[in-house]
Amino acid sequence: MSTTTTPTTPADLADEASAWAVGGGILTMALFPLALPIILLTAAAAIPLLLVALAVGLVVAVVAAPILLLRRLRRPVRASRRSHNGRAGPAVVPRPATNGRSTILAPAAPTPKGGGC
Questions:
Q1: CA 103 to mean position of chain CA atoms
Q2: 3-state secondary structure the chain
Q3: Whether 106 contacts 100, CB under 8 Å
Q4: pLDDT at 90 over 70
């Protein structure tokens, strides 16, 4: 048995590629008539699963909708109570506009040594 290999010629590569392409075409043509029935059977089998998922989603939505609505309605009431009794400040701290540039903060001014205020 020889351990040396001969280099593959481009003609051999083309011959092998065409053989695989013909085999793939034959297999595709043989299985093509089965493709549509398999797709239809898969869709028919998936319909009950989709209906169950839809029912679960509707139940979750019916339970979650009132909870979310109550949370949304309570939020403005809480905010108005806080602003009336003065315990909470503004929700957003206003910052100076920088027009997209970064601001460079200057160092703090030194305090007098005498401690005078």
A1: 34
A2: CCCCCCCCCHHHHHHHHHHHHHHHHHHHHHHHHHHHHHHHHHHHHHHHHHHHHHHHHHHHHHHHHHHHHHHHHHHHHHHHHHHHHCCCCCCCCCCCCCCCCCCCCCCCCCCCCCCCC
A3: no
A4: no
What is the dihedral angle through the alpha carbons of 72, 74, 77, 81, rounded to the nearest 10 degrees? -130
The rounded Cα 91 to chain-centroid distance in angstroms is: 29
Q: For position 102, what pLDDT does the model report?
A: 59
d(CA 42, CA 28): 19
Least confident of 38-42, 52-56, 58-62, 98-102: 98-102
**CA angle in degrees (0–180, nearest 5) for 36-41-47:** 130
